[in-house]
Amino acid sequence: MIKKPIKQLIISILIVVIAGGILVVRASTKPQLPLNARLTQAAWEAYNKKSYEQAIKKAEECIDEFQPAAIRQQRDLREENTPVPPEGSVSADKKETIINRGVLNDVATCWFIIGKSYEKIEKQQEAIQAYCMAAKFTYARTYDPSWDGFWSPSQSAMDRLDSLGGKCK
């Protein structure tokens, strides 16, 4: 039979080992991005790998799920006369405000990715339609970590429309 102090020591050691293991697992696990961000990231990754059909598919998944919320957010910002966010590098406060509009940003970005993908597979009319959709989301911004700044998928879509000679209805 194990004496009480030794039994308590063994239990204490087990608790420390288990707690330490839990901390290691938590520390090594990255927080998961929200679904809209994961789908947008997957669409970009497919586009960059020249898997344009897959890029369109992932972007459409994001749009199908989140576009109603993005439309509401765009409408609310416009009705409240909220200033359109800047492009480029911004202050930490503005960066947080922009990033907190994740659904709006991702839906607009996904429409832009669809437009770029359709251009690559030479479906100009489909590209124009996608760019027209992206152009509607004037409050959306896309973050580019390579230069720590934001660009406008709406403005970029309008630039592509000009290049293609496309018009929105």
Short description:
The chain has 169 residues and is mainly alpha-helical. Helices cover 70% and strands 4% of the residues. The chain has 2 domains: 1-30; 35-164, Serine Threonine Protein Phosphatase 5, Tetratricopeptide repeat (Alpha Horseshoe), CATH 1.25.40.
Descriptive notes:
- The chain is mainly alpha-helical and 169 residues long.
- 70% of the residues lie in helices and 4% in strands.
- It has seven helices and two strands; from the N terminus they run ααααααββα.
- It has helices at 4-28, 35-48, 52-79, 92-99, 102-120, 124-135, 153-164, and strands at 142-144, 149-151.
- A two-stranded antiparallel sheet has the order 1-2.
- A hairpin with a 4-residue loop joins strand 1 (142-144) and strand 2 (149-151).
- It is elongated.
- The protein starts with a helix and ends in a 5-residue tail after the last helix.
Q: The CATH topology of the largest domain is what?
A: Serine Threonine Protein Phosphatase 5, Tetratricopeptide repeat
What is the approximate shape? elongated
**What is the element string, with H for helices and E for strands?**
HHHHHHEEH
CATH class of the largest domain: Mainly Alpha
- Work out the strand percent: under 5%
* Count of the separate structural domains: 2
The appropriate CATH architecture of the largest domain is Alpha Horseshoe
Going by helix content, strand content and strand pairing, the class is: mainly alpha
Mean pLDDT: 90
| Low-confidence residue ranges | none
> Major beta sheet, specifics?
2 strands, antiparallel
> How far is the N terminus from the C terminus?
85 Å
Helix content: 55-70%
Order of strands across the main sheet:
1-2
